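Hey, I'm writing a tutorial for new members on how sequence and structure tokens pair up, and I'd like a real worked example in the thread rather than a made-up one. If someone can provide the structure for the chain below, I'll link this post from the tutorial.
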Amino acid sequence: MPQLDTATYLSQAFWLIVCFCTLWGLLSVFITPKLTDIIEQRKRKISDYVQKAEKLNNQAKEILESYQSALSRANQNVSITLAEGKAELQAQMEQTQRKMMEELNQEIAEREQALLKEKKQTTKQIENMSYDMALAIVKKLGFAQITRQDIINAGQKDKQHG
């Protein structure tokens, strides 16, 4: 094998060094700078993407906060509107109830007046009928000289003493 021949060691070492230096020079001049540029570009792109993502995330957070704020304001407005509506409805109900109670009390008073008037009339009629019956009984008993006025006067005296 030619690689193991000691006479060719020097030339092999020489060409090994020449090839290594040439490849190293080519790599350091042409390939490494391109790779470094590509890596830097990727780092910048990734950095830009991360910054854009953070910016979008911050915008999304701001939008979410404004949405939540608007939602809470809307809920507060709804609560206020409901409370106002409830209070207004309650006031209307109380006013209607008060009005109905006044009407009922007025009607009760009118009916009581009518009943009192009827009671007076009925009492008067009963009183007249009793005087007439008493007169009829007294006449049947044979006291023809007693008049209706005598019976009325006797009834009034009994009322005053009784």
